[in-house]
Amino acid sequence: METVQPKRRIAVLPDSLANKIAAGEVIQRPDNAVKELLENSLDAGARSVVVVIKDGGMSFIQVSDDGVGMDEQDAVACFQRHATSKIATYEELEEIRTFGFRGEALASIAAVARVQMKTRRREEEAAVVVSIDGGGPLRVSRDAREPGTTVTVSNLFYNVPARRKFLKTTATEFRHVYDAVQRIAISHPEVAVEFVSDGDTILKLRPATLADRLVDVFGERQCSALIEVGEHTDLLTAAGYIGKPSFGQRSRANQFLFLNSRFIVNRTINHAVFSAYEHLLEKGTFPFFILFVDCDPRRVDVNVHPSKLEAKFDEEQAVYRMINTLVRNALASGDNVPGLSVQGRGPDVSLQFTPRQHDRGIPSGPATRLVDTSTGEILPFNTPGGRELASRLLGRDRGTAAPSGSPGSDRLEEHSVQPGGLTWQVHNKYIFSQIENGVLVVDQHVAHERVLYEKAVERLNGSTPASQQLLFPYTLTLSAAEYSLLSDVLPYFRQLGFQITPFGKNTMIVDGVPPDARMGDGEKVVTDILGLYREYQRESPMDIRDNVAKSFACRSAVKAGDPLTEQEMRTLLEQLSATTMPYVCPHGRPVMLRIAIDELDRRFGRL
Ligand code: ADP
Ligand code: MG
């Protein structure tokens, strides 16, 4: 290989150049500077911060606080790289509780902009003013100021044209700065936050409780679609709010995760939340969440990213399980049944789903409920809250209803169905059932699908397969494609309860099926399930196990058009109430809706 340049001698870079290079890591755009300055203010104990920007922060950023301030010696020292008052030893880094600790932010900002810092400690008469341009020499003077600190950053990247070129439009940079301010505002409701951009006051937030701060930031309407969550284990405490499924977001912008008050992005936790919403969200939408995770700083490494935007947990798996369970339980025990409201007048009445809006998501009571779950089991309907909801939905808590099984047994026996509760079938398709405050309408096919799907998942996850021996085993003759597909998924089919054995060229013998398989026209059951499997796979590639369970459930469930006896309907409703997610089928279609008696009363002029 040719050497292009003659080799130079090794030399240590001058400080100003080293700082400029280091700045590239910490400060890439205005929002990074705003974040660093705000974090410094919070570390300084500020009760009130004001952020003023111009041109999305590109020409002007100013952050003022009423924190402890600095004396002249510190105000000069703080611009040196690795100058920090927050840690002195490695042990202190291990249990860091402040935002800063690298001592890089001010040095980096000062290397790539014109910076002025005006700061005063309470016990001093006047403020110190330190000015520094592009990492050059410091100028120190005095001025008047209330106790606290103001840092002004002008012309970011004026001396680094390559960086400047990477900046986007004013609107985009503004958006990023807004996000940075918003994150601080959410995680520190006790601090007053003001944000002014190009002369317009964007945020002016008084100190508040978390719930009130969220209303101030997001508005009443959005907050009414939130469910409060909270849980505490030996490992960590997690608390906050998650969006109801009806409140799916078009982007991931409204996902806030704070680890010990620091905003971070963590794939494990994000995925734990997202997968808890499985099948509940419309395709292409994302959950809204604000989660505060607190743990012993020694169990997590926050020093894995230059702007500390990522963190690494020691026990990643346990964290995943805990967050996933927390969100799942909240979603399943919350009352997420859509209500039916009848709109319009006269004969052409249109029916519409509307998410129920009966409760304000954010209670004003004590901030967080802490629930200790050591088992991590996801059986919300086996919890008192879940049971109560099930009884409420199915009207079982009325005196006339059946005793709800023996204590501890939640899957009710067929015999527990009693005359008296009104249940009827309409058009061999929908089950109507009278409930305490109205009527519940259930789609019989999707309801059964949900029940069978959960049973199938249980079996696929390891419980012993139950199988029903066929009196007359039969031979399946398959196409080459079907044969190879079935060979691939055979272990899963067996786990479900199918007894299938390959038998020579493109044929298999079936001599047992799961007890809840719906034979119908007998031999087609296996090929039908395979067909569905292929179809789902085409629509969206998913886990083999999940797909097998879905295909089996869909093929085996009662169909629209099947007449059901009252006994069968009630059994179905009770089995449905014992599922973890009775409101939606495995494909995300709603299973039930409710017509409130109030709605009927209104329509008939009784209210
Ligand atoms: P770090 O925050 O990692 O310590 P910085 O470069 O952000 O590094 O700040 C250097 C030091 O300057 C801090 O450790 C702190 O002592 C001091 N400092 C910075 N900003 C403020 C402020 N707003 N109020 C009081 N002290 C501050
Ligand atoms: Mg800092």
Bound ligands, each once:
adenosine-5'-diphosphate, magnesium ion
Please, what is the CATH homologous superfamily of the domain at 15-207?
Histidine kinase-like ATPase, C-terminal domain
End-to-end CA span: 89 Å
Strand segment tally: 24
Strand order in space, largest sheet = 5-4-3-6-2-1-7-8
| CATH domain class name of the domain at 15-207 | Alpha Beta
CATH architecture of the domain at 15-207: 2-Layer Sandwich
Give the radius of gyration: 31 Å
Number of helical regions: 18
Percent range of helical residues: 25-40%
CATH topology name of the domain at 15-207: Heat Shock Protein 90
Protein structure class: alpha+beta
| Biggest sheet statistics | 8 strands, mixed
**Unreliably modeled segments:** 340-420
- Average the pLDDT over all residues and give the rounded result: 80
Percent of residues in β-strands: 15-25%
Judging from the principal axes of the Cα atoms, what is the shape?
elongated
Features:
single chain, 607 residues, alpha+beta, Heat Shock Protein 90, Ribosomal Protein S5, domain 2, Ribosomal Protein S8, Chain: A, domain 1, eight-stranded mixed beta sheet, six-stranded mixed beta sheet, 18 helices, 24 strands, 33% helix, elongated, binds adenosine-5'-diphosphate
